[in-house]
Design a protein that fits this description.
Strand 1 and strand 2 form a beta hairpin. The chain has 13 helices and two strands, in the order αααααααααββαααα. The protein has one domain (57-87, 100-316). The chain has helices at 7-17, 23-32, 44-60, 62-85, 112-121, 125-135, 139-144, 147-150, 157-190, 206-223, 225-235, 241-258, 290-316, and strands spanning 196-197, 203-204.
């Protein structure tokens, strides 16, 4: 056989020199590799498929189900507590304004339990749940040894990072809606429904009040985008999912504490949690937009800064797991 006929033998040696691909690797390569007819990379439909797979994986975890269960239980506990406290005709909160916002109005209209439930979960429970999901996004894959499999084909680190963030944002929306729907169901079961009295003292119809409740839930979900970006950045710094989740939750608690110290009033407008409760301005007539605009603008700044930092870190990081 001449030397000209030897390339197949060299190709076989080269193929044997490669690491043996597992079925997972081969499936990923088939799903994400270039189209043999066009030579192009992954199609937008593949990106949607990856996003769908991430959603299924995230929401099938027992940890995610437990987090959503805890969030759904908070409005139930508040509603039952208010019902028991007001059974003898006393007002909710003891008449001294104690408790979460809007709690005194729950007995007059069960829809206020939606606002109270969101106000009660926003300072800690909701951001903690988002921190757990975002902190585990990249570090959890590295810890489980599956991150290399996701990147074995030319899927692109940027594409994967954006998919992880989109999944976290979807969880933000779902978690907020779980609180709102649970609160509405309990409020309708235990208390009357009807027209609402706004903070400004005006009356609005039930349909308009329900629309404002939905808008408030969307604003609360948007208020968590900064936390999601921060958690994703932390997740790119370590290969330990537990360490990333603990660090993110620790940062949340630290910022919440710092936001209550009067001596730091000059810095507090830049804390991501400072304008979270501005959603209450949606219950004014007319609506006060200043606090809402500051809140959403601040979240956008956090997304830009920590999202860019996460991208810079992840695209230059050595993937060893």
């Amino acid at each position: 056989m001449s030397r000209a006929e030897s390339p197949p033998k060299r190709d076989a040696k080269t193929e044997n020199a490669r690491p043996m691909a597992t079925p997972t690797d081969q499936g990923a390569a088939r799903k994400t590799g270039p189209d043999p007819r066009t030579g192009r990379g992954p199609s937008p439909l593949w990106t949607l498929g990856l996003f769908r797979d991430e959603l299924v994986t995230t929401f099938r975890r027992w940890r995610t189900i437990a987090l959503l269960g805890v969030l759904a239980a908070v409005p139930v506990l508040i509603g039952v507590a208010v019902k028991i406290e007001t059974r003898g005709g006393s007002s909710a909160g003891g008449g001294g304004g104690e408790g979460p916002a809007f709690i005194a109005q729950i007995t007059n209209n069960g829809l206020f339990l939606v606002f109270t439930g969101l106000a009660a979960t926003l300072p800690f429970f909701l951001p903690m749940a988002i921190g757990v999901i975002a902190g585990d996004a990249i570090a959890g894959e590295a810890n489980a040894g599956t991150l290399r499999y996701l990147l074995v084909a030319p899927a692109g680190r940027t594409r994967l990072l954006l998919t992880k963030y989109a999944t976290t944002m979807t969880f933000c929306l779902v978690a907020t809606l779980v609180v709102a729907v649970s609160a509405f169901a309990v409020g309708a079961l235990l208390f009357p429904l009807g027209e609402l009295t706004t903070i400004s003292g005006t009356r609005i119809g039930f349909a308009e009040g329900l629309g404002r409740a939905l808008l408030i839930a969307l604003v609360v979900a948007a208020s968590l985008t900064g936390v999601a970006a921060l958690g994703l950045f932390v997740s790119t710094l370590t290969n330990s999912g537990i360490a990333a989740m603990a660090t993110t939750v620790g940062l949340l608690i630290t910022v919440q504490i710092l936001d209550q110290i009067p001596q730091l009033h000059a810095l507090q407008p830049y804390f991501f949690s400072h304008y979270w409760l501005s959603f209450a301005d949606l219950m004014r007539d007319p609506v006060y937009w200043d606090g809402l605009v500051r809140d959403l603008g601040l979240q956008g700044l956090y997304v830009a800064v920590f999202g860019s930092a996460a991208w810079a870190r992840f695209t230059t990081k050595d993937i060893t797991a």
